[in-house]
Amino acid sequence: MDAFSGLADGFATAVTPTNLLWLMIGCLLGTLVGILPGLGPPATIAILLPLATNLEPATGLIMMAGIYYGAKYGGSTTSILLNIPGESSSVVTCLDGYEMAKKGRAGPALGMAAIASFIAGTVGVIGLTFLAPVVANLAVSFGPPEYSALMVFALLLVIMLAGESLLKGFISMLLGLLLATIGTDLFTGEQRFTGGRIELAGGFEFIAISIGLFAIGEVLVNVEQRTGRQIFKVPSKLRELLPTVKDLKDSRVAIAQGSVLGFFIGCLPGAGATVASFISYTVQKRVSKHPEEFGKGSIEGVAAPEAANNSETGGAMIPLLTLGIPGSSTGAVLLGALVLYGLNPGPLLFTDHPEVVWPIIASMYLGNVALLVMNLPMVPLFAKLLNVPYWVMYPGILLIAVVGTYSVNFSMFDVWVLLAFGLLGYVMKKIGMPPAPLLLAFVLGPIAENAVRQTLILSDNNPVIYLQRPISATLLVLAVLLLASLTLGQSRHLRRQVLEIDD
Amino acid sequence: MTRVVHIALGVVVALIAAVTLAQALTGLAFLGASGEPGPALFPAILSGALIVLGLSLALGYLIWPKARLANREKLNLSRPEMGRAGGVWLSLAAGVALMPALGFLLSSILMLALLVLGMERLRGYRPVVALLALPIGIYVVFAVLLDVRLPTGIFGA
Amino acid sequence: MQRRLTLTTLIVVSALSLAACGSGSDTAEDGTTDGTTGGAPSRTEVVTHNAVGGGSDVFTRQLIKLMKESDNIDRLWPVRNIPAGDAIGAMSFLKEKSGEENYIAQMTPTWLVTPMTVQNSNVTVADMTPIAGLASEPQVVAVKAGSPLKSMNDFIAAAQADPGKLVQTGGSGTATDALTGLALQKSTGAKWKFLSFEDTGSRITAVLRGDADIVMGSAGDFSEQVRAGKMEVITILGSEKLAVFPDAPTALEQDIDVESLPLQFRGIIGAPDMPEDAVAYYQEALEKTLATDGWAEYAESEGLVTDFRDNAAFGTYLEERTEVLGGLLEDLGLRKDQ
Question: Which residue in C219, C300, C284 sits closest to C67, CA to CA?
C-alpha cells in the first residue's frame, strides 16, 4: 500500500466522530499535562492505559498520539510565562521565551510557539508519511561512532550559550557533565559517586534539576525586591498580544530549520526532543542576523526550538512504526500500548495492520490543526495571567514546582534535589554563570560518554573508526569547522576585551 | 567584592573537582577489561579540566589589574536583597521538610503563611484567602483530578 | 473588625480543607485504610522494576489482562513502575509496605543479582514474601539474517579462532545476557567483546548494522524481527525447543551446559510479612490463570515455558537461584556484597 492511498484510507477512518472525540480529549489532556511541570506524556499515557485498552486500537492510539502532541504545545506555555520548563523539551524555550515575557511580549512568544509548533508538526508528519522507509535506514545506520560525533558537535554548540564569560560558561558545562556521571555505570554496573544512596542509583532526576535551576532560581532572584509591584509589563491591546507580521517574517528561517532538524534528530533513537530543540536553537543563533539578541528575548529563539520539538514527534514515530524500536520514552510507552492491543510493533506493522497505523498518522495532521485552533485563541488569555501580583504568583510557582517534581518518582529526595538546584540556580545567576550549559551538558553527557565508550570497545581503542564511517566522518568535519569558526569569533571577542583595557 | 567572589568561586570549583578526582581514581577502575575506557576515565578527565578552569578563574581575578576588571560586568550583591532570597528559600525548605510529617496540604499552607504573612508582611483577608486557596487548588488539580499521590502525613492529607 | 473577619475566614477555611483532605484520603494512598478483613485484597498494585514499555512492564500488564479476562480477578490491577536502582528501588518500596496485603511485584533474576553487585544494599529478595513462580523464559541467541553463524557452537568456535574480535551486544554489564556470555566464555575458553546498550532497540540495530555479531534476549524481543526476515534465531539457551522458533537448535543439543547458565524466569513476590490469606489468594488466582488457554497461547507466542511453583516451592527455588547466581558472580569477580 503506498503512502497516498494509505493516508487517504487513514483519513477516512480518522474522521469518524468517535476517533475525533478521543483525539480532542487526547489533545486537551496533553496540553494540560504539558503545562503542568513534572507529569509528562509517558506518565500520563501510562495512567490512561487501562482506560485506553477498552477502546478500539486505532481510537486508543489516536488519543495517545493526541496526548503526545498536546504536551509539546502545552510545555511552552509555562516555559514562556513562568520560566518553568513544563516538559523536558521546553527547557530551551525558556531561554528566550521568558525574556520576551519580561519585556511584555509574552503574547507574541506564546503565539509564535503555537504557530511554529503547528508548521513544524505538520512538516514532521509529512516526513513520517513519505520518508519513513528512507529515514528508517538512517536510524539503523546510526551507531556509536555516529552518536558520539553528533554529541561532540552538540557539546561544541553548548559553548555558544556561554554568554559573556567563556570561562564561566565552560565551568557550567563541565559541572553538568560531571553531575551526569553520578549514577550507575552502564558497562560495569558500578555505582559512581552515589555514596550508596539508592535514590542516586539512576542519576539525578532531570526535572528536579531543570525546574530548580530555571524556575526556582528565577523566583529567588525576583524576590530580592519587595514584590508589591508587578514584575512584567502586560500590554492590554489585542494587537500586542499576538505575534506581528514582522515576527513571522523574522522567524521564517528558524521555523524551516527547526522543522527539518527536529525531524531528523527525532528519528534517531535516544536523541530526543531536548537535543533537537537545543541544536536547532544554537544553529539558529549561528545563522541569525541578530545573534546578540538570543538570550535576551529574540523571537527566533522561541520559534526554532518550538519547531524542532514538534517535528521531532513525527521523526520519533518512524523507528517505532517501521522497526518497532521506540525513539523516546513516550515512544516506549506507545510501544507497550501497541503490544497490549495485540499488535506487535516491528518491521511488519505497516503491512500487517495498515488499518491502525494510517489512521494514527492521519490523526496527527488533524491533531496539529486542532491544537493550533485550541491554543491560539488562548494566547491573550494566558498572557494576561501575568497580571497576577507576584506575591501570589511566586508561592504558586514554588508549590507547583514541588508537586511537579514529586509526581515524577514520588520521591521526596527529588524534591530536595529541586531545592538544592534552586539555590544553585540563584547563586549562579548572582555570580554570572549561565545555567543553560549545565543543564544541556547534563542531558548530552550520558549519551556522549556511552557512545564514546561503545565506539572504543568496537574499535579496540582505535579512534580511526570515526573516519572510516561516512556519517561520523562528516559530523566530525562539521564539528571541526564549527570549532574553527568559534575560535576565530572568540579570538576577535577576546582581542576586543584585551584592547579595552589598554585604553 | 566582585573580585573576591570570583576568586572564591574558582577555588571552590577546583576543590570540589579535586575531591571528585580523588574519589574517581581510588574507587573506580580507570580502564576496563580489555583496555577500553572504564567508569573512572570520564569523571577523571572532567574533574581534571574543572580543576584547571577553577584555578584559572581564581588566578585570573587575582592577578589582573583593577582597571581591567572595571570593564567587566559588576555583580549585584546587596546584603538585604540576598537576605530576602535566602529567607524565601528557607521557608520553602521548611515547608518541604514538614511534608512527610504533616502531609502536603498542611505543610504547604504553613509554608505559604510563612511566605505571605512572614516574608512579604502582607495583612488583610486577601493574603489569607490566597495562602489557603493555592494549596487547596493545587491539591485538587493534582491529587484529585490527576490521581497523583501527594505526600500524606499523620493527618492523612 | 478586620481581625475578626480574618480569623473567622481562617477557621472556616481550615475546617473545610481538613474535611476535604479527610475525604481525600480515601482516594489518596496512605496504606492504613485498606481492608485487612481477610477477604480478597481490594487495592492491589503490582510493582515492576522497568519503566513503562519495558519487558517486565509489558509482561505484567499482559498477565493482569489475562487474569481479568479469565475472571480470576475482578478488576485490572494498576501497575506501579519503579525503575530506580535496577530492582533495588522496587524492593525498597515493598519493604516500606511490610505487613500489608496490597503490594505485590513481578520479579526476574535481576532482583536477585543487583543486591549482590552493590556494596551495601539493605534490601534483598530474601526479605520479601514469595508468592508464586510463573514461567521460565529461555534466552535465545539472535543474529542478522544471512549471517554465516548457524548455531551457538559456530559462534564459540569462531570466537576461539579469533579471540577478542567477535561482538556480543546486550545490556548492562551485570544483566543476565552479560552474565551468560561471561559464563560461556569461561567454560569454553573463548573470548569475545561485550557491547552494552541501554535498550533492546539499540541492540537490535547494532546487529542489523553489523556492529555486533550476536545478541541474547527473550524470544519476544526478536520475534517480530525474525518474522520480517531481518534476524534469525540460532540457538535456544535451554533444554527444550520453543514453538515460536521451531528451527532453532537448543543448547542441550549442542552440548552446552545449560544448568550453569543464569536462567531467566518470572515470578510474583509480595511485600515482606504479607498476611497468609493474601498470599493464598494471589497464588490461587495466578495458578488458575496459568491453566487457561489464553495463557497457553500467550506463553507459546512469547517463548515462555510455563513452570508454576507455589509459594513454598518458589521460595526454595529463589534460594537455589541466589546461590547459583552468587557463585557465578563471585567467579566473575562481580560480587560486592561480601
Answer: C284
